[in-house]
Specification:
Distance between the termini: 27 Å
Largest sheet: 5 strands, mixed
Number of domains: 2
Number of helices: 11
CATH topology of the largest domain: Peroxisomal Thiolase, Chain A, domain 1
Strand content: 15-25%
CATH class of the largest domain: Alpha Beta
Order of helices and strands: EEHHEHEHEHEHEEEHEHEHHHEE
CATH superfamily of the largest domain: Thiolase/Chalcone synthase
Shape: globular
Number of strands: 13
């Protein structure tokens, strides 16, 4: 490694956390017009984890951060980046308190907001901090308490979204070593922001001086249009990231896609020609955990042995904004 031009962000630790509370499909059918068969056939979800009253996103983030730091072998970082859609408060950012609780007070700390693509946007940001020489080690956490913004009576979202956190530690290293993060392909389309949104609570609604209309404080998603755009954008970004890495799609050993729902995962994998045995998935047991989805998936897959050193991994996600992204890396040997 010679000078900053040769610096790359290398994954050296990973950790995930889900809160202990579990909601089954049967629990949901008791209050919603739905069934276990309907939920499974449309989402692939059987259970999901939810926070207890009084628990916040920062609590999830701290747990995942502790596990990632332990996995890396060193409880230190020069910067903490938190990807989340559900910060503890609108102001200040949640990352500084997470850093302080992890014993990293004094480190640079800030939030990144890109909804379900937050981890990949955070990964690009953390990689930039390392490439520029601003940081030698970055703790990147993605955490969401999505159930705090979901309408419990909305069948379209209440059956899908859940709570959780995942984290990775990145260190400065060489672009050619295992764990080095490849080029991150990112994109957005604000003209379609209405497909995934929380209408109330921001300056647009507050500046009117009028109270929010009933239900506008909750997360909304237009499922059919979101499905179509998610499949298109994730597929295109994945192909670009694989090409940038100098791989063919046949070289991909593991696809780690944002766990949005089973139908999207299947459609993307089919378009990329990646068979089921090379697809990582945990959506059946954790649901859609927003920004936390990919790092939580990586942590659980590594712990289970489904993700091993040397595997060529393709990461891809799509979320509100609209925003999407993909990147690649060769999985390193980690203590999980």
């Amino acid at each position: 490694m010679s000078g900053r031009a040769g610096r790359a962000a290398v994954v050296c630790g990973v950790g995930g956390y889900v809160p202990p509370g579990v909601v089954t499909n049967e629990d949901l059918t008791a209050r919603l017009d739905t069934s276990d068969e309907w939920i499974r056939s449309r989402t692939g979800i059987a259970t999901r984890h939810v926070i207890e009253p009084g628990t916040a996103t920062s609590d999830l983030a701290v747990e995942a951060g502790l596990r990632a730091l332990k996995s890396s072998g060193e409880a230190r970082a020069d910067a903490v980046v938190l990807a989340t859609t559900t910060p503890d408060q609108p102001c200040p950012a949640t990352a500084p308190q997470v850093a302080a609780r992890l014993g990293l007070a004094g480190a640079a700390a800030f939030d990144v907001s890109a909804v379900c693509t937050g981890f990949l946007y955070g990964l690009a940001t953390a990689s930039g901090l390392i490439a520029a020489g601003t940081a030698e080690r970055v703790l990147l956490i993605a955490a969401d308490a999505f159930t705090t913004i979901i309408d419990p009576q909305d069948r379209g979202t209440a059956v899908i979204f859940a709570d959780g956190a995942g984290a990775v530690v990145l260190r400065a290293g060489r672009p050619d070593e295992p764990g080095a993060v490849g080029r991150t392909v990112l994109g957005s389309d604000g003209d379609h922001r209405h497909l995934i949104e929380v209408p109330a609570g921001g300056s647009r609604q507050r500046s009117t001086g009028l109270p929010a209309a009933p239900g506008e404080e909750f997360f909304r998603m237009h499922g059919r249009d979101t499905y179509r755009m998610a499949v298109e954008r994730m597929t295109a970004a994945s192909k670009a990231a694989v090409e940038s890495a100098g791989w063919d799609l046949a070289d991909v050993d593991r696809l780690a896609a944002h766990q949005a729902n089973a139908r999207i995962l299947t459609a993307v994998a089919e378009r990329l020609g990646i068979p089921p045995e090379r697809q990582l998935s945990n959506i059946e047991h954790v649901g859609n955990t927003g920004a936390a989805s990919i790092p939580l998936l990586l942590a659980q897959a590594a712990e289970a042995g489904d993700l091993a050193a040397g595997h060529r991994v393709l990461l891809t996600a799509f979320g509100g904004g609209l925003a999407w992204g993909s990147t690649t890396l060769v999985w390193p040997g980690l203590d999980v």
